[in-house]
Amino acid sequence: MYPVLADIHGAESNPVPLRADFGLPSIAELKRGKKWNFQAALTLVATPNAPSGRGYATAELETLCRAQKGVVVLDEAYVDFGNENAMSLALKHPHVLVARTFSKAYSLCFQRVGYFVGHPELIGALQKLRDSYNVNGLGQIAALATLDDLPYYRATFQKIIATRQRLSRELEGLGFEVLPSQTNFILV
Ligand SMILES: Cc1ncc(COP(=O)(O)O)c(C=O)c1O
Which of 46, 119, 142, 183 could form a disulfide with 94 if both were Cys (CB 3.0 to 4.6 A apart)? Predict the structure, then answer.
């Protein structure tokens, strides 16, 4: 959706491919490839990634964030199914935002509730340019209700992760190539 949304807003987009194994290219590789823009106004990384399911280490993301001049958005839509999260980067670096959603792990995709965490200056800028209408009221009530029952959701994440691992093993046993996943889906 990022290129589509960029087009709608008349922004210049510059999609850069991942490695063949869906890993993040290193800074040296990005420099060699000459396509990556270290001066980009906005850099978007989905972590864990979709549709590969691959997760990225926080240390690796931090190296990338440090190399960027503009704002970096780390889209953590699937983070509850992963081994690591990069929230510390949004709290440490004033140009990094972490995006989260209630659409995946909290099953509220029909409510469209998401949020950014980052430096007050960036959040203030978002507040200035966002639509004047707020997240809908029922969505807010539903999102708050999930937070009242986090043990239930955390147990569910563990069940989903266990199912993902079992399904991956079974598919591998049938001869499929299954990519390691840190999300609630697998690429086979
Ligand atoms: C990486 C990623 N970010 C965000 C979203 C959507 O989040 P939301 O429902 O909050 O718009 C998706 C949904 O498919 C996704 O795959």
Answer: 119
